[in-house]
Amino acid sequence: MSNRKRSTTLAPVPALLCAVAGSAAALLAAAPAAHADVVDVAYDCQTPIGDKSAVSPIDVKAVKDGDAYKLTMSFQKGVSSSPIELGKGAMNPSAVLQTDGAEKVSVPVSGAANSEAVPADTPIKISDLSGTYTPKKSGKVTFTAGVLTIKAMGTTTTCTPGNNPKPSLEVDVTAAGGGEREDAPEALPQTGPADSAPALGTLGATVLLSGAAGVLWLTRRGERARS
């Protein structure tokens, strides 16, 4: 009788192990293969009052949305200034991100007008710029800051990266229907969320297994006490 009870208690363990393994595998599969860097971009700007230059750290992020990827380009410092105050909503920024690797295209990104007035001779803080990239080929794709355009009060300022910046983001993309796969000649090392996924999966498995072991020990201890 005791053996039958013990077998009944131990039977769910293989199922639990399979569930843990399946959950860890699903987590790893869902983790994006991406590498991001904040890159200093030296912009050479042609403004209505002459040539200007400024350096801004650029951060680019991508989030998969169906067959496409939502891109966000962030500026951590201002890249230009105005000799007169720019009223609220007077400035409209846009830019392009250049891709390389499996596919070479220009992806337009744009942002909202300035939400507050910008004082004269003050560095203009560019709002986050966003756009959508839909890959036609599968493989590793890098995103690099391209030309920035600022329109304000009937004038246009064009800023071109002058320091040949390195990519801000690399993503292993998948085209609709799988697409033709082409890997970039050299892959950047993966850091951040992609690297933490295996550790997270292992931690989850350890916690679940530890919990299962505690339940089994308590169950078997209870059986001994009853016997």
How would you describe this structure to a colleague?
The chain is α+β, with helices and mostly antiparallel strands and 227 residues long. Helix content is 27%, strand content 38%. The protein has helices at residues 2-10, 12-30, 193-226, and strands at 34-36, 39-47, 50-65, 68-75, 91-101, 106-110, 129-133, 137-152, 155-161, 169-173, 180-181. Strands 1, 2, 3, 4, 5, 6, 7, 8, 9, 10 and 11 form an 11-stranded mixed beta sheet that branches. Strand 3 (50-65) and strand 4 form a beta hairpin. The radius of gyration is 27 Å and the shape is elongated. The chain starts with a helix and ends with a helix. The model is unreliable at 1-32 and 183-227 (pLDDT under 50).
Radius of gyration: 27 Å
- Estimated structural class: alpha+beta
Strand content: 35-45%
User: Which segments are poorly predicted (pLDDT under 50) over 5 or more consecutive residues?
Assistant: 1-32, 183-227
pLDDT averaged residue by residue: 73
User: How far apart are the first and last residues' alpha carbons, in Å?
Assistant: 11 Å
SSE pattern = HHEEEEEEEEEEEH
Major sheet summary line = 11 strands, mixed
Shape: elongated
User: What percent of the residues sit in helical stretches (DSSP H or I)?
Assistant: 25-40%
Helix count, per DSSP? 3
Total number of strands: 11
Task: State the gist of this model.
With 227 residues, this protein is an alpha+beta fold. The chain has helices spanning 2-10, 12-30, 193-226, and strands spanning 34-36, 39-47, 50-65, 68-75, 91-101, 106-110, 129-133, 137-152, 155-161, 169-173, 180-181. Helix content is 27%, strand content 38%.
